[in-house]
Amino acid sequence: THKIILDTDPGIDDAMAIFFAFQSPDIEVLGLTTVYGNVPVTMAAQNALSLCELANMDIPVCKGVAMPWVGPESTYAHFVHGDDGFGNINHPAPKGQLDPRSSAEFIVEMARKYPGEITLVAVGPLGNLALALRLEPELPKLLKAVNLMGGAAFVPGNVTPVAEANIWNDAYAAEIVFAADWKLNMFGLDVTYDLPFPPNFTQVLAEKNPTLGGFVERSSEFYTDFYSEGKETRQCFFHDAFPIAYIVDPSLFELTEGNVRVSTDSLNKGQTIFAPYGSTASPDWTNAASINVATKVDHPRLTQMFIDTYA
Ligand code: BDR
Ligand code: CA
């Protein structure tokens, strides 16, 4: 099995991804680390606890950064994920306690405990990862890989014409993360926004697994409304599950290698700019870290894998 830490801002597609990881026999989730993003960090942490309780998973849940690396408090995505982050379904408050460690501390501790074994899966803004890098500069050597949901290399953004939400939410932290010397695999809107899931997707999950799939189905109502506005048929996207699916079956994806930098300029904030190797002589690029960007996904096989795993 593959050890992962899931860094998340739950969030509806976060919930779907977390349950997918919990259910996958190939994945061992060491803990959930939370960050502000879709919702404020206090809510993200409580939501993550709720998801663990629903799934009967007794693992550490940590609270992380509450604000961007630079600049004022973020605006949240309640209009996508509901006031509670779960589509306003009145889910009960969790009973358990958060782990006393911060998200960044937990990441560093686990990476030292299992050197070279952990894939860090980041599906929210990247402040925890940037902070962990500052706490432990050797972190890139201690982690096996970083798989993240974020960015848009070859397609438009979803917050601005050029920026995807997770990267836009903390562009300075993202630039730190993209510059670090680890094996970084980026699953951005290039693949996650490529094709919607079939209209009955969440129903099938609910039939397969009434508790976890049922939760995803109920919470997705609000989220699907958002994604379906102005569309002829109802449609929905589950961005955050993609970087986990890659761990289970890399053959689902095509990736291309190059350099990625994140714009921190106000107009282009959060843009993930991709350069193929050697395409520029500027030291800004020739010194940039090498990154794999997912460009293609086998959507039918991916969809089937999610459904099968929700058994
Ligand atoms: C990303 O932003 C969040 O709203 C989702 O949970 C996902 O991580 C998609 O742009
Ligand atoms: Ca997310």
Could you describe the 3D structure shown?
InterPro entries: Inosine/uridine_hydrolase_dom, IUNH, Ribo_hydro-like. One of its GO terms (biological process) is purine nucleoside catabolic process. GO terms for molecular function: purine nucleosidase activity. By secondary structure, the protein is of the alpha/beta class. 38% of the residues lie in helices and 18% in strands. It has 14 helices and nine strands. It has a nine-stranded mixed beta sheet with strand order 3-2-1-4-5-6-9-7-8, sandwiched between helices. α5 (127-135) crosses α8. The mean pLDDT is 96. It binds beta-D-ribofuranose and calcium ion. Calcium ion is lined by residues 8-9, 11, 14, 37-38, 123-124, 240.
Write the layout of secondary structure elements.
Elements: E1 2-8, H1 12-23, E2 27-34, H2 41-54, E3 61-62, H3 78-81, H4 103-113, E4 118-122, H5 127-135, H6 139-142, E5 143-149, H7 165-169, H8 171-179, E6 184-187, H9 189-192, H10 201-208, H11 212-228, H12 242-248, E7 253-262, E8 272-276, H13 283-286, E9 290-297, H14 299-309
Helix pairs in contact: 1-11, 4-5, 5-8, 10-11, 10-14
Bound molecules: beta-D-ribofuranose (BDR) and calcium ion (CA).
Pfam family, one: IU_nuc_hydro
Organism: Brumicola blandensis
GO molecular function, one term: purine nucleosidase activity
